[in-house]
Amino acid sequence: MKPFRLPSHFLLGCASSGAQIEGGDRNSNWYAWCNQGHIKDGSTCLRANDHWNRYKEDISLMAELNQKIYRMGIEWSRIEPQEGNFSKEALQHYRDEISLLLQNGIKPLVTLHHFTHPLWLEEKGGFEQDAVSEYFERYVRFVVENLGDLVSEYITINEPNVYAVMGYYFCEWPPAKKSVKLLLKVLKNMSLCHIRAYRLIHKIREEKGYPGKTMVGVANHLRIFDPYNKNNPLDQLAARVMEYLFQDAVIKSMSTGILMLPLGSGAPLGTGKFLDFFGINYYTRDAVRFKGFQNTQMPNTPRNDLGWEIYPEGLIRLCRKYYAEYQAPIWITENGTCDKEDAFRADYIYQHLLAVSQLCQEGIPVERYYHWTLMDNFEWAEGESARFGLVHVDFDTQERNVRNSGRFYSEVCDKLEVTQEMIEKYLTSLG
Q1: Distance (Å, rounded) from C-alpha 49 to C-alpha 42?
Q2: How far apart are CA 385 and CA 377, in angstroms?
Q3: Architecture of domain 4-427 in CATH?
Q4: What's the average model confidence in pLDDT over 234-248?
Q5: 1, 192, 250, 424: least CB-packed within 10 angstroms?
Q6: What is this structure's pTM?
């Protein structure tokens, strides 16, 4: 291990989503899904971290850990609990939370859709219906008009490819409808939702003269797809096809307005550049076999608690590729690992930030890094069993305790470097 520095303008913080930490919301598609017994450990997002009531405590934790930025989700199900009826109380709660972040010197990046939405929308068909872009635009308008004086940065949609694949192919998430036709329609509609929201956010903030530079983008879930056998041309072909179908087609559609096959064709809302930054959520690599069009893993590689390969070089490869294509500043909107014992999280952070420092030295404008996540939370189908937090949470008592990796990351956030002393203090004792 070697010391390294990050640029003086670089910003570090953490990311979360509303449904995974807030608790108490009985009005979302994921609350209904939990109640149907689909969560592996039997837990429910109704408990989560009780962040709705404990946000002051959690923001104090962020400040203690020297966080400069925070990617937070707001819940559509709270903001618009019934179709067309908006909750001033929920809006005020988010204003209070964001105001406290700003008072602590933490800049918010607000996610408008992070896998969850109101039950009334789910009952109408969610993102399967063409009218969803109108509903989404109405929701976005209310949020931006009422938070725009506090928030200048937005993610419209988090991981559209994951939402569609998990809900319409693997059927491990709501609405669990196995249909490639619906999957593609959902991705098309999400693309149109993003484009309309992107234009609207810029329009509202410009017309109202809200402060701050308007920054709007998507949190793209990106993976490395490598051929299982790099010398097998069929495995090479399968990896390229998988990469295009899982991520490149939807990214191109959302970023340019040109719908890519098989999502659609043409540019129904016109063409343009619909991103102010390129958001990357990166966790792992897949090894692809042509036989059975199968995703597997490279042999003899390090894995986390969920069996995902730990592959820091993938972050370098992805940033190089997508910066070359889209020429936009890169924000690492999620990166972290599942490590219940906190045995390798500090090393994981070190390795991925070392990759970021290399990219910055190359002149690629990686500007931010949001660690996933601040504290152990409700991790979708895995429930409370998958622990990604810098902070350990006892879900029964809601007690928070900072892990060793959290202390390490706190120092990195404060110093914008990893020193030899920090390596000896936090990393040399790791197995």
Answers
A1: 16
A2: 9
A3: Alpha-Beta Barrel (3.20)
A4: 97
A5: 424
A6: 0.98
